[in-house]
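Schema walk-through. Below, the input block comes first and the output block second. Nothing else is stored per chain. Lengths vary across the set, and this one has 274 residues.
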Amino acid sequence: MKKLKRSARLVEMTQYLLSRPHTLISLTAFADRYQSAKSSISEDLAIIKEVFEEEGFGELHTLAGAAGGVKYTPKMNKDTALEIMTGICKELELPERVLPGGYLYMTDMLGQPELLNDLGRMFATAFAGRHIDVVMTVETKGIPLAYATANCLNLPVVIVRRDNKVTEGSAVSINYVSGSNKRIQTMSLARRALKEQSRVLIIDDFMKAGGTIQGMMDLLYEFKATVAGVGVFVESGEVEREERLLEDYVSLAKLTAVDLKTKQTTVIPGNYFA
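--- output ---
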């Protein structure tokens, strides 16, 4: 890369860091890239670090030593996240979103890149302190949300299928009980999709009793994997505590009341904000 003026270098460095979250970048790499002294690079990084933290973009960690460098961790402060989620809750309360069975129509919202980016950063912030190897979800509506989260954590995504695909090769399949309708269903995961003893973050779009997530946890047991965390976009609050199959999870929104006759709903920020 040709030598840049400092103002241009700051812009390019910022973009470089934003596109490589959770990646350790050495000062030498930056110095070679911009044909600048390490002292100048350090001053630039100090400016970027200050702006990131003041504006709530995340954190810039500096690691000292010969193998050191800088690492960008995307984060969103709670006040900003709560403001965004409050607006999302109002959108979810629209009567036309009520579906039979007390579910909410959210597919259109989970197709909006800006919204997905915000939700991904919220989950990335919630689970930032945990060692995670991979993000997992079950097809289909949770896939965009899982990718948004994985993008912020710079991790691969594993998708659990409802049935075995011939293009996936050999797979592990299990039966599980759907928590909402008590039906026996099947899910499968290709053997090559997940390494044994991986630490997995499960992300899903909606949780009622938690049967689907519990099924994924049982599937992970077959891979000797560990559940590092569970995140759901919306949880249903209309499930009795004794019927809930999960206790340890992070929710961004909570459906607390739904009247199928009047299509009136109440959606509040989830336990992440408690």
